[in-house]
Structures are given as C-alpha cells and as structure tokens.
C-alpha cells in the first residue's frame, strides 16, 4: 500500500513558529558557551575561586592541572543536575499542560537564573542561579524538540528539528563573542556575560505567547477541534484530514496508557528507549562538551594567552554554527545513519591527532610551539565540524521522532535526563581527568567513538521519511535485531489505523 501523502506549505507564520521555538536551543547553547569563558576570567576567579587564581599565577604550575578544582567544575555542572531532575517534571507538564506552556515556563526559569547569576555576590547565589538555569534547560530541552518534531511536515522533519541544534550552536557562538568582549570589562565583565542569558529567554518567552500548540498535544488532551484548526494553521492548507486521522488514531492508543513511564519498561518500548538513552550517552562521550565548556581553559593550557584562547573559542563556535547547516540540508536527503558514521571517522582522526601531539610535544610546564598549537586548533575545528552535522543535532532528532505518542514525552524525558546526567559527569570530571590522564584523555574519547560507530552499524535503523506515528510498523518491527521485541499479540495495541 502506498504511503499517505500529507499536504503542507511553509507560510510566514509556520516559519516564525519554528524560529521562535528554536530559541530554546539558543538559550541552552548560550549557557554552554558562557560558562567556560567566565571560568577563565581573572575577575571571576578572584571573587569566587581565589585559590585557582593564585595557582594560575605560578608559571611552573602543571599545565594539565592548574584548573583542577571541584567547586569550579560544580559551577558548570550544577546546571545539569538540576536539568536532569526537572526534565521529568517537564514531561508531566508537557502531557498535562501542553508543549507551549512548558516552553513558557522554561523561559521564565532561565530569566530568573540570569538575574540571580548576574547579581551574585557569594558562592551560593552563583550556584542557585545555575540551578535555575538548569530547570529552564530541563523544561526547554524536553518541550522544544518535541514541539518542533510534532509541527514539522514529514518531509522536512529532520531539518526543522535540527533548528534546535542550530540555535544551540548559535548560542555558543554568541556566548564566545560576548566573553571575548566582556573579558576586558574589569571587574564586572563576567556579570554582563551571565546576565546576557536573559536575552534569548525573553525572546523565547515572547515566542511562547505567539506560537500555536502542537496538534498532537491538543488532541491528546481531548481538544480535537482546536487540534484540527492548529494542524490547518501549521500546514498552511485545509486538506489535513488524512494526517489528522493518523493523529487521532495515535491519541486513541495513547489514551489507553495511564502510566507511560511503566509502559516504557515493557519490551516493546525497548528499541526507542535504548536508542534514545544510548545516543545521549554517546553524544557526551564524543568529548564535545569537554571541548565546548572548557575551550578557553583548554587553549590556555596549550599555551595561548587569555585573549587568544577566547578568540580561538570564537573560531570554533563559528565552525559549529556553519557546520550545523550541513545537517539541515542533508539529514532528510542522505539520512541519519550515513551522517553519524561519516562523523565517527572524522572525529576519531581529530581526537587521535590531538592526543598524539599533546602526548609527544606538550610537557607539564611548557607550551606548544605556534605551529603545533595551530594544528591542534585546526583539529579541534575539524572535530567540532563533524559533530555539528551529526551527533549534535541527531542526538535530539532521533529520540524525538521514534517514540509512539503514548510514551513520547516520558521517553523523551529519559533522553533529556540521560543527556543531562552524562553532561554533568563530563563537566564535573573533565578538568580532573585532564589533570590525571593528561593527553590520554583524547584517546579515552577516541575509544568511545569506535564504540559509537559499531552501535550505529548494528542497532540504529534509518528513520528518514517515516511518519512519526508509523515507526513501530515500518521501522522497529522490520529491524533484524529490534523485531524480536515484538510478537503479534503484544504489538496489536501499537498498530495504527
């Protein structure tokens, strides 16, 4: 039987909804970029971490260990613990209130975090601000990718969802520019950096008042007429009956599931759950956040001066943004698997090259010569480039499109919380790992990249062009490994009309 064709056209309102919602990613990216730059600013260290500042002043201090401090790492990583916990509350909010109010709450928490962080006078205010940031990230990262996936036409679903990751990369780049500018604003430049997080949060807050709720969320909450009207609005056409019937069918099945988290523990839910969690773990163990969080610190360790290290971070941020456009243009053409596998090869070469150079040429108290330092920056850019068109955006896209409606918000909550958990682990451990493992840390991440490639080859199906409410029949039950999780009796409840 031929696949149904759902009509749609891109109207200015639809495009604006995509962009405004994607500001949830810009909010997240700004925080990723801003924290690493702030922790490299002397004024910030003098006020909150004077011991580290004193350690920096000793030229003979171990290159790999001068930033090794658990409290400094907690400043960065506390956000991700808060996001981990809040993602489960965000899942409930998405179900009960809808995607749109959850996005609004995300922006509110983030604005509060920006205000408290910028005004911080003592350590507890700084950490509490980070926790509020974290709650905002947890709510935003739960609701925004789901919203984008649910309102996107099937033939553009990958590209629309990747707008979230594009916004993340733009946020990182803007944060690097802000840090580069505020690093000379003594003694309160860091306050402007942290307070600047309020800007994307304000835009997201305003956007959440303009965008429509997703049709699936409205129908799921028994508001069918509003759901059909919303579907017509986001498709830009009146002929939406076929797609609306599919949403109704998915919602009818979802309504029979009273405990979605319990449903996730059933073997039929195992394929998308394993894929979703594994992608988040692998995304962090590529080493990307270790580089993006601490890029200024990393480049200072390599012998760059403070301004030069921030400038190098701006360069990597620009590469990150530009390369994400590659994913937008290719993900719905070449598919998810090819992008992931190509990137594994490129990231492996980059990480191994960096590891070899640092192992052979960077002593504990010296610095790299300019030529080798330039090579390291190029390899970092090559690594960031491949991540930006693969594991970065697809780590959010694939989990948002593979769960059936009845477990979609619960399953995605596990994806978000897994991402935050392992982001926390890397953020909390990276500087200590760099101190103890030295250049071998890059070989550690390289080994994980090999594992990731094997995982894609064996266990990850292609989901390009498959309607999100047809994944069970057309993807999981046809996969050579995952089809074993289904039998005729157990899978009847998953079948679409």
TrEMBL record:
Localisation per UniProt entry: Membrane
Segments passing through the bilayer: 12-30, 71-90, 102-121, 127-148, 160-178, 190-212, 273-297, 309-332, 372-398, 410-433, 439-460
GO annotation, cellular component aspect: membrane
UniProt main location, coarse: membrane
Xref: InterPro entries: MFS_dom, MFS_STP/MST-like_plant, MFS_sugar_transport-like, MFS_trans_sf, STP/PLT_plant, Sugar/inositol_transpt, Sugar_transporter_CS
Recorded topology in the membrane: Multi-pass membrane protein
One function term, GO molecular function aspect: symporter activity
Major facilitator superfamily (MFS) profile domain ranges (all copies): 17-464
UniProt cross-references to Pfam families, sorted A to Z: Sugar_tr (PF00083)
Gene3D superfamilies per the UniProt record, alphabetical: MFS general substrate transporter like domains
Top-level lineage group: Eukaryota
Keywords: Membrane, Sugar transport, Symport, Transmembrane, Transmembrane helix, Transport
NCBIfam families, A to Z: SP (TIGR00879)
Family: Belongs to the major facilitator superfamily. Phosphate:H(+) symporter (TC 2.A.1.9) family. Belongs to the major facilitator superfamily. Sugar transporter (TC 2.A.1.1) family.
Name recorded for this polypeptide: Sugar transport protein 8
Lineage, top ranks: Eukaryota, Viridiplantae, Streptophyta, Embryophyta, Tracheophyta
Encoding gene per record: LOC113737817
């Amino acid at each position: 039987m031929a696949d149904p064709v759902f009509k749609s056209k891109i109207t200015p309102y639809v495009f604006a909804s995509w962009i405004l919602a994607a500001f949830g990613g810009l909010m997240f990216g700004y925080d990723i970029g801003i924290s690493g730059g702030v922790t490299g600013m002397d004024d910030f260290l003098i006020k909150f971490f004077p011991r580290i500042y004193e350690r920096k002043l000793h030229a003979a201090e171990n290159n790999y260990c001068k930033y090794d401090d658990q409290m400094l790492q907690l400043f960065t990583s506390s956000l991700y613990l808060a996001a981990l916990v809040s993602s489960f509350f965000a899942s409930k909010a998405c179900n009960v209130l809808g995607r749109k109010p959850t996005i609004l709450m995300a922006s509110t928490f983030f604005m509060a975090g920006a205000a408290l962080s910028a005004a911080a006078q003592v350590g507890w205010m700084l950490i509490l601000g980070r926790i509020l940031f974290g709650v905002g990230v947890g709510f935003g990262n739960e609701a925004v990718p789901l919203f984008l996936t649910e309102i996107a036409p099937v033939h553009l679903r990958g590209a629309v969802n990747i707008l979230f990751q594009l916004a993340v990369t733009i946020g990182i780049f803007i944060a690097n520019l802000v840090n580069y500018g505020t690093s000379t604003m003594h003694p309160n430049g860091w306050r402007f950096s942290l307070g600047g997080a309020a800007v994307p949060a304000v835009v997201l807050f305003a956007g959440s008042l303009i965008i429509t709720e997703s049709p699936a969320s409205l129908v799921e909450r028994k508001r069918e007429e509003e759901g059909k009207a919303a579907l017509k609005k986001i498709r830009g056409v009146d002929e939406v009956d076929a797609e609306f019937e599919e949403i109704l069918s998915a919602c009818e099945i979802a309504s029979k599931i009273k405990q979605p988290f319990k449903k996730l523990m059933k073997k039929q839910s195992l394929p998308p759950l394993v894929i979703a969690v594994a992608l988040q773990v692998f995304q962090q163990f590529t080493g990307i956040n270790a580089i993006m969080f601490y890029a200024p610190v990393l480049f200072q360790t390599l012998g760059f001066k403070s301004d030069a290290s921030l400038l190098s971070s701006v360069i990597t941020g620009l590469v990150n943004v530009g390369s994400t456009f590659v994913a937008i243009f290719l993900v719905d053409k070449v598919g998810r698997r090819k992008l992931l596998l190509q990137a594994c090869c490129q990231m492996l070469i980059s990480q191994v090259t960096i590891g070899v150079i640092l192992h052979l040429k960077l002593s504990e108290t010296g610095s790299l010569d300019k030529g080798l330092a330039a090579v390291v920056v190029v390899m970092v850019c090559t690594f960031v480039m491949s991540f930006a068109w693969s594991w970065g955006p697809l780590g959010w896209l694939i989990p948002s499109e593979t769960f059936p409606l009845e477990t979609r918000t619960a399953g995605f909550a596990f994806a978000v919380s897994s991402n935050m958990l392992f982001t926390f682990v890397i953020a909390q451990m990276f500087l200590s790992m760099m101190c103890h493992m030295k250049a071998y840390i890059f070989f550690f991440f390289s080994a994980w990249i090999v594992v990731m490639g094997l995982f894609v080859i064996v266990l990850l199906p292609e989901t390009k062009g498959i309607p999100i409410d047809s994944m069970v029949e057309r993807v999981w039950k046809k996969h050579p490994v995952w089809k074993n999780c289904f039998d005729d009796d157990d899978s009847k409840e998953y079948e679409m009309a």
